[in-house]
Design goal:
About 35% of the residues lie in helices and about 20% in strands. It is α/β, with parallel strands linked by helices and about 425 residues long.
Length: about 425
């Protein structure tokens, strides 16, 4: 079977550092931190008092009151991001075969806020079950995919991917694969997450996964810095429109880049910790290169998973150096989580958008909040610290890894006929 070529024709993003793609990109390249005190609930008794929250977002600007009541925050964020991507793609709905347009959407956790609120109301009440009839559709992880298809009438393949923090990277990979093998011509794909609530912050605090740098939230997310102490919780959504090349050309679409290849693997090691030598991460990147028919010399930029955790950052750099060797000295390595925080199941999609714009603009955003080199990290890597780097980016590799040992790597490259 001859595999079809897949290109990116639309982007959408709603993040802690920008509520549209242009705002998001501008904040990335200028090094804006999205961290600040938690406002969604009273966090005064929690170990972490801060997070990367969405700012200046009023769902009533996008939905009527009935819809807002029916949707969990993660759904609202996902629908807004998807709408931006569809509009950006200039996809003319009446002119496309709706049976050939699919939606694959991701969330690592789904409607956590809804579940928490409903259970709390039951437990603190008189014991009478008064659950909202929207409880189940508000909390399930596949509802965003369904709602996007309902809004636009897309009748192609439609489902959700769940692989913890790798979830939306897996949604991109599935969309890429389905188009390649001819199962659809267009996909809206991405992910959304909204877990800045009592259960989300409390649960990750108990895992000792979150930074507790309460005296300086703006610099708390410090990937690859010696004094990193955990990730900063983020929230948001990001969407991409993937399209078969001939389909995109026939309708005169603007093409951001080509999706070159993807790789997936499992650590098969630990429930929450990465393989200490980065074995699974290395395998995912290697498989992505093989899938794309590319070599290590072809990659100019790696947007790392880079969460700012003591173990994770070391494992990923070991994987990069282990695979790329001397080439790692010239590849621009960054972590946009230093600015957005960790969007969990939406991270892969948000970071894919950043990787694509790095290719489009030949500009690599920085890893901010770097103060002290970590002697445990290999230093023969071209880290982009604190200031963006203007350089040619022919191809970028985006890494996303999740609890359970899930690893996903996607390669994007400049489009050429």
């Amino acid at each position: 079977m001859k595999l079809r070529r897949v290109v990116v024709t639309g982007l959408g993003a709603l993040t802690p550092i920008g509520n549209t793609v242009p705002e998001y990109w501008n904040s990335l390249v200028t090094g804006v931190s999205g961290a600040g005190p938690i406002t969604h609930f009273d966090a005064s008794r929690f170990k972490s008092l801060f997070a990367c929250e969405i700012k200046n977002f009023d769902p009533l600007n996008f939905f009527d009151r009935k819809e807002v009541r029916k949707y969990d925050p993660y759904t609202l964020l996902g629908l807004v991001a998807a709408d931006e991507a569809v509009i950006n793609s200039r996809l003319e709905i009446p002119k496309v075969d709706l049976d050939r347009v699919g939606v694959i959407w991701a969330s690592g956790i789904g409607g956590m806020s809804t579940f928490y609120d409903e259970v709390e109301n039951f437990v603190t009440g008189d014991g009478t079950p008064r659950f909202t009839p929207f409880l189940i559709p508000k909390m399930i992880a596949d509802i965003v995919a369904g709602l996007i298809s309902i809004k636009y009438g897309f009748r192609g393949p439609n489902f959700a991917t769940v692989s913890a923090c790798a979830s939306s990277a897996n949604s991109l990979i599935d969309a890429f694969t389905y188009i390649r093998i001819g199962k659809a011509d267009v996909f809206v794909t991405g992910g959304s997450e909204a877990t800045i609530n009592q259960a989300g912050i409390g649960g990750f605090n108990s895992l000792h996964a979150l930074s507790t740098r309460n005296d300086d939230p703006l610099t708390a997310s410090r990937p690859f810095d010696k004094d990193r102490d955990g990730f900063v919780m983020g929230e948001g959504g990001a969407a991409l429109v993937f399209e078969e090349l001939d389909h995109a050309i026939a309708r005169g679409a603007t093409i951001y880049c080509e999706v070159a290849g993807a790789g997936m693997s499992a650590d098969a090691y630990h429930m929450t910790a990465p393989h200490p030598e980065g074995l699974g991460a290395k395998n995912a990147m290697r498989l992505a290169l093989e899938d794309a028919g590319m070599t290590i010399e072809d990659i100019d930029h790696i947007n790392t998973h880079g969460t700012s955790t003591p173990l994770g950052d070391i494992a990923e750099i070991k994987a990069i150096v282990g695979l790329f060797g001397e080439q790692a000295k010239r590849i621009a390595v960054n972590s946009t989580k230093s600015m957005t925080g960790h969007l969990l199941g939406a991270a892969g999609a948000a970071e894919a958008v950043a990787s694509i714009l790095a290719i489009k603009n030949d500009l690599v955003p920085p890893t901010i909040n770097h103060f002290t080199d970590d002697p445990e990290l290999e230093q023969n890597v071209d880290f982009i610290f604190n200031v963006a780097s203007k350089r040619p980016v022919r191809a970028a590799l985006s890494n996303t890894f999740g609890f359970g040992g899930h690893n996903a790597s996607v390669i994007f490259k400049k489009f050429e006929l």
